[in-house]
Each structure stands twice: as C-alpha cells, then as structure tokens.
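Quick bug: glucose-6-phosphate dehydrogenase (NADP(+)) output formatted oddly.
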Amino acid sequence: MGSGQWMVERRSSFGNDSFPKEHETVSESGCLSIIVLGASGDLAKKKTFPALYHLYRQGFLDSNEVHIFGYARTKISDDDLRDRIRGYLGKDAEHVSKFLQLIKYVSGSYDSEDGFQLLDKEISQHEESKNSAEGSSRRLFYLALPPSVYPPVCRMIKKCCMNNSDLGGWTRIVIEKPFGKDLESAENLSAQIGELFEEAQLYRIDHYLGKELVQNLLVLRFANRFFLPLWNRDNIANVQIVFREDFGTEGRGGYFDEYGIIRDIIQNHLLQVLCLVAMEKPCFSQT
Ligand SMILES: NC(=O)C1=CN([C@@H]2O[C@H](COP(=O)(O)OP(=O)(O)OC[C@H]3O[C@@H](n4cnc5c(N)ncnc54)[C@H](OP(=O)(O)O)[C@@H]3O)[C@@H](O)[C@H]2O)C=CC1
Ligand SMILES: O=C1O[C@H](COP(=O)(O)O)[C@@H](O)[C@H](O)[C@H]1O
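Here's what came back:
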C-alpha cells in the first residue's frame, strides 16, 4: 500500500477530514506550555519527565519560553512532584535543579471544570509573563492517563484550556497507547475525541516504535547483507519475544485492574516487535 492510499484509509477510519494542510505554516515561536496530565503516575515519572529533561539538556526546550505543568488528582505540592521525579532525570544535579524549577503542579479531577479552570489560569499567567509582543502561545497536553479518562479530559481541555491568544499559536493533544480496549472502544474514543479536536491537533503515540533497538530491527533485517538471505523459516527454528520487568506493580494496580497487563503490553508493543521481526520487506512504491 502506498502513502497516498494510506492517507485515504486513515481519514475514513478516524472519521475526521481535517488533516493538516500540507502548505499551512504554524508558528513555532513564543511561549510553550507543556502540560502532563496524570503527572503523579508511572509513565510521567519514568518516561515523560525524563524525555522532557533530555530535550531540555539538548537545547530543544528554551527556559525563556517553556513552562511545564503537572496535573493529577493526587494532592501534592510542586516540590513533592519534583522530588518524585528527580531520581529519574540524571546525575547532573545543577541542570536537574534548573529543569525542575520549570515545573509547576496543579491538582484537580479529570471531569470537573474547577481543576481545569485553575490549570488554565496558571498557564495564562505563565504566558502573560513570558510573551513578547510578537510571540504566540503553544499549549501541548500530554495524556499520561488510562484511556478511560481521555474523553472527559479532552472535553475539559476544549472547554477550559484552549489557546485563544490573539497572537496565534496552537493547542495539541498527545495520547499514549493503548487506544481503547478493542476495535469498538478504539473507534468510540476516536469519535469522541474527533468531535473536539481536528486530526492535525492529535498525536497518538507508542514509545516502543521510538526505541533504537526496535527501529534497528528494520536495518538489521533489510540492510544487512549477512542477515537478509538467512532471515527466513529455513534458518530460524523459533522466535521468542521476552518482556521482563525487574520490579513490581508499583502504583499501576488501579490501571492494571481495569485494562490488564496483556492489553497494556502485548497487543501494541510486543505485536509491533513481532511484525518487525516477521513481516515481509516493506514496499515503498507510491500508488
Ligand atoms: N508506565 C509506562 O511506562 C507507560 C505507560 N503507558 C500508558 O500510559 C497510561 C498511564 O500509565 P501509567 O502512568 O503507567 O499508569 P498509572 O496507573 O500510574 O496512572 C497514571 C495516573 O493516572 C491516574 N489514574 C490511574 N488510574 C486511574 C483511573 N482508573 N481513573 C482516573 N485516573 C486514574 C493516577 O493519577 P491521580 O490519581 O493522581 O489522578 C495515576 O497517577 C496507560 O495508558 C499506559 O498504557 C504508555 C507507555 C509507557
Ligand atoms: O507501555 C508500557 O510500557 C512500559 C515498559 O516500557 P519500557 O520502555 O520500560 O520497556 C510498562 O512498564 C508500562 O506498564 C506500559 O504501560
């Protein structure tokens, strides 16, 4: 299947015709607010904040423009959140401390306006303090939350927290896997979120596809002259994909009770790895 055909399929399956217009330019200057919803959780502490820290260390997040907000129901202070994530960031205490000062925590529920109005107030205050006359405001909402709360959270963002600066900018939503429990719930989620945001504002992600080892599987299989002719049923007796964690549930119990570890890992991460191990060479031709 070529890329042209893929676009057509994707439009119909997500029921939304508002893909980015190819030549549309979007302002990438001015104040940037990154809001991590579910900031008290496992994903936020182990992956999201460390990823933001690495972007900061590599110079992609300018402390003159960026502020990071954590949001969740747990009642903790800014410093409590900083203490929770400090140990996951790195060993350079000075840089870690500077990065942590960019983070503010707001507590509130996922389905009522009070918390989101407070969040909007905090973001707006930050924008007012940082914006120059020509700057625009960008708001990136990262949902480090179980899928069951995506719809209420998206409704609250739409109602209370959209960027409406006269100076332009954008509001974007990043959604983690798993995207629902099955086809029906995934389509249901898409329909609900699609009513609130344009497709161009939505980013569905799965961090396994970004792993170097996973990405290298394609190179190993299709660009390596030793493996290319040998990687087939005549030479491979069996394939085992092993997922191991050397720690316990660690606060994920509520989420696992609802979704289950199999849905959490197997139908996305591990099946993707299986596909990369076993699939035919991709066809890159255009249709
Ligand atoms: N952990 C990881 O490494 C990764 C996780 N993911 C995905 O990210 C999402 C969150 O995972 P993770 O952070 O591990 O899970 P957590 O159980 O740690 O949940 C994150 C936060 O969401 C809130 N929460 C948990 N359960 C519920 C619930 N039933 N209803 C409302 N709020 C709830 C809690 O915050 P509070 O109570 O303070 O509001 C919690 O701190 C999942 O969809 C998971 O598949 C994706 C990639 C990696
Ligand atoms: O998506 C998830 O993945 C992590 C494991 O990711 P890894 O990069 O550390 O291998 C898992 O711990 C988490 O429960 C799950 O939601």
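Actually, after a second look the formatting is fine. The first strand starts at residue 30 and ends at 37. Closing.
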